[in-house]
Amino acid sequence: MTDLATDYLDIDFLLTEQEIDLRSQVRQFVDDRIRPNINSWYEEAVFPQDLVKEMGSLGLLGMHLKGYGCGGRTAVEYGIAAMELEAGDSGIRTFVSVQGSLAMSAISKFGSEEQKQQWLPGMAAGELIGCFGLTEPTAGSDPANMLTRAERNGSGWVLNGAKRWIGLASIADVAIIWAGTDEGIRGFVVPTDTEGFLATPISEKLSMRASIQCDITLDDVRLPDSAVLPGVVGLRGPFSCLNEARYGILWGAMGAARDAYHAALAYASDRTQFGKPIASFQLTQQKLVDMVLEIQKGTLVALQTGRLKDVGRLRPEQISFGKLNNVRQAIEICRSARTILGGNGITLEYSPLRHANNLESVRTYEGTDEIHALIMGRAITGIPSFS
């Protein structure tokens, strides 16, 4: 029989033995390598780069892609891994997302055979790191109006522009840069040691402190024609990759929420006030019940979304459903968990407020609440409310 405190609806019954085995493996990695260190990483704003090859050896990088050293795992398996990683910290799950769902996915979906051979095996192993340059200082939710340009120059290209909030850029070996051209928006595979490419970490963050986000400047970056991703023109390219990342987010957010709930439940069971544990108080039980309701519902949303993805039935607006709902609910769960911890909840000894802070970034990137609401609104009404 399932433990109602951890899996009220017995969702494990819906998982295969292989999915449960993978979850156990990733959960053990989180317990051994992330939980003992995350407080210091977060406080000191350090991304643990030594974990990259370990995650590669576990098959977590580009795990849902096929060939070229990638794991070829199912969408559900990738989602389960994302959930477990984000139970450790959003920053660690974000690394896996940027590497696999964005940079590697762009090369896998739209790259030439030469580009795939050159980059994907090393990225899957964690020997090479990638980043994905779409967002700009003045073009976040509206990438169609990006200012970065690529102009033809003889047999090659010259890129000029700027990108902002680009994960991993300062430690990346390769950047996927999206730029406007006379042909439409194109993707470029840019080795980060190319002259004119500069990535500067964004400091003084209140969120995602165990992660790296950067400003990128592109100053007459000269590239050969072979740097272009040949398989796509237009926003379909970056949006396809963004949907891969959004899919991982809707799983990951539930991992953060679950971890915050477990921290609150353990604290409420041990903390005594007025001669009895606070878990015995009605208002505390109400908070815990509300958390369980939303975590279980959100996990079912994630699982159904993954099953649809695995059989080729998933639509982009369904991903928006999961991203919007699960991140929004996860933030509320983490905030509620913090209240159960009282004043102790504002310290790094407990995870809920760290998760809540991180989720403010997750809520914003790969589409804000407003963008996903409008995507859903268009799907429901058939009327687009934005251009």
The CATH C-level class name of the largest domain: Mainly Alpha
Whole-number mean pLDDT: 97
What structural category do the secondary elements indicate?
A: alpha+beta
Number of separate structural domains: 3
Q: How are strands sequenced across the largest beta sheet? A: 2-3-7-6
Give the SSE order as H and E letters.
Answer: HHHHHHEEEEEEEHEEHHHH
Largest sheet: 4 strands, antiparallel
CATH architecture of the largest domain: Up-down Bundle
What is the first-to-last residue Cα distance?
A: 51 Å
> How many extended strands?
9
Overall description:
The structure is a single chain. With 387 residues, the protein is an alpha+beta fold. The mean pLDDT is 97. Helix 9 (316-340) crosses helix 11. The strands form three sheets. The protein has a four-stranded antiparallel sheet, with helices on one face. The protein has helices at residues 17-34, 38-44, 51-57, 75-88, 90-110, 113-125, 236-270, 282-310, 316-340, 352-364, 369-381; strands at residues 130-133, 149-153, 156-167, 174-181, 184-191, 197-201, 213-224, 272-273, 276-277.
Indicate the topology.
Blueprint: H1 17-34, H2 38-44, H3 51-57, H4 75-88, H5 90-110, H6 113-125, E1 130-133, E2 149-153, E3 156-167, E4 174-181, E5 184-191, E6 197-201, E7 213-224, H7 236-270, E8 272-273, E9 276-277, H8 282-310, H9 316-340, H10 352-364, H11 369-381
Parallel strand pairs: 1-4
Antiparallel strand pairs: 2-3, 3-7, 4-5, 6-7, 8-9
Helix pairs in contact: 1-4, 4-5, 4-7, 5-6, 5-7, 7-8, 7-9, 7-10, 8-9, 9-10, 9-11
